[in-house]
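Reminder to self: tokens first, then the designed residues, so the page reads top to bottom the way the pipeline ran.
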């Protein structure tokens, strides 16, 4: 089972939740149905989204602290869930090396973000302690 795909799916789901904050449980079910039998780690997907949603205040404070004066509203909408997933892993998953979380975030940013997203995300995540 692929954690890589679960991580990418979590980013996409959390992006969706930015615009539709109601009925999260129903959204999760619909979202997972859309992936059918894809080879992803469902438990890890659920852990990530629940972890990010439950620690979002803490995660967002770390983002704001490390962007030196930027408010969350200035950060690209797709970059936020990428950062949140990576920071959740860095702060709450001791079994995942920090470098792996950063690398995965950069790869997702290259796929879904703007032309500058990967560089921005790499730089910001490198400051998280």
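Designed residues (129 positions):
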């Amino acid at each position: 089972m692929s954690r890589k795909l679960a991580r990418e799916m979590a980013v996409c789901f959390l992006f969706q939740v930015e615009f539709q904050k109601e009925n999260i449980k129903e959204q999760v079910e619909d979202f997972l149905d859309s992936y059918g039998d894809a080879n992803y780690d469902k438990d890890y997907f659920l852990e990530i989204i629940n972890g990010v949603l439950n620690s979002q205040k803490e995660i967002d404070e770390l983002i704001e602290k490390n962007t030196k004066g930027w408010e969350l509203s200035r950060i690209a909408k797709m970059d936020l869930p990428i950062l949140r997933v990576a920071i959740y892993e860095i702060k709450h998953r001791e079994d995942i090396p920090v470098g792996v979380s950063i690398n995965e975030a950069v790869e997702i940013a290259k796929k879904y973000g703007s032309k500058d997203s990967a560089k921005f995300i790499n730089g910001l995540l490198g400051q998280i302690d």
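The longest helix spans residues 3-19.
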